[in-house]
Design brief:
Pfam family, one: MFS_1
Oligomer: single chain
InterPro entries: FLVCR1-2_SLC49-like, MFS, MFS_trans_sf
Distance between the termini: 57 Å
Largest sheet: none
Keywords: Cell membrane, Membrane, Transmembrane, Transmembrane helix, Transport
Number of helices: 7
Number of strands: 0
Transmembrane segments: 6-22, 56-75, 95-116
Strand content: under 5%
Structural class: mainly alpha
Shape: extended
Radius of gyration: 24 Å
GO cellular component, one term: plasma membrane
Helix content: over 70%
Length: 133
């Protein structure tokens, strides 16, 4: 089974390398045409990454996402062990607690997104002068 999947993935990779071009002959829009004209030929992937990490907002986003994801993964990994330690035989409730955490996170993301969109306060969150006070 793994050989079949590997063969299909390799075939698709070879087709992508052969068939797809770096960019089309004719730009799909005026904006893309202007982008091609203004793009510097020495722009590299490494310079893009360096420019990203010089952006304070991006660095703060990476740090906060990393802390949030790390805390969630640690809690999810150890949740069953923590619940069973204090409440033996409650494996089902440990699963329910995990489900509650996931659903609360999804609802919180949707609610905060709708709130930021309606109140238009997302600009205040990303303004450089308001980040560090």
């Amino acid at each position: 089974m793994f050989y079949i999947i590997g063969g299909v993935a390799t075939l698709l990779f070879i087709l992508v390398i052969i068939v797809f071009k770096e960019k089309p002959k004719h730009p799909p829009s005026r904006a893309q045409s202007l982008s091609y004209a203004l793009a510097s030929p020495d722009a590299s992937y490494l310079s893009s990454i360096i420019r990203l990490f010089k952006n304070l907002n991006f660095v703060l986003l990476v740090i906060t996402y990393g802390l949030n994801a790390g805390a969630f993964y640690a809690l999810s990994t150890l949740l069953n062990r923590m619940v069973i330690l204090h409440y033996p035989g409650e494996e089902v409730n440990a699963g329910r607690i995990g489900l509650t955490i996931v659903i609360a996170g999804m609802l919180g993301a949707v609610i905060s997104g709708v709130w930021l969109d309606r109140s238009k306060t997302y600009k205040n969150l990303c303004h450089p002068n308001r980040l560090i006070q």
